[in-house]
Amino acid sequence: RSTEEREETPPPIDSINIPHLEIISGEISPEFWLKDKTYVLFCNKGQRSATATNWLRKNGLKMVYCLENR
Length: 70
Fold this sequence. Notes:
Layout: H1 3-8, H2 20-24, E1 39-42, H3 47-58, E2 64-67
Parallel strand pairs: 1-2
């Protein structure tokens, strides 16, 4: 999420912010993601989190989900 989005609607306390471009560019190595953990990705409208979710699934993660904001 962008800085503006985080200020407008703060994320849950136990979440971390990783911009989707850092995920899909490979800037964050696929080895960073633990295969036995569950990940829920979210953004303002769901497009960026869906893109990142698909990238992570294609790179071997099974328990990764996109939370849609409706």
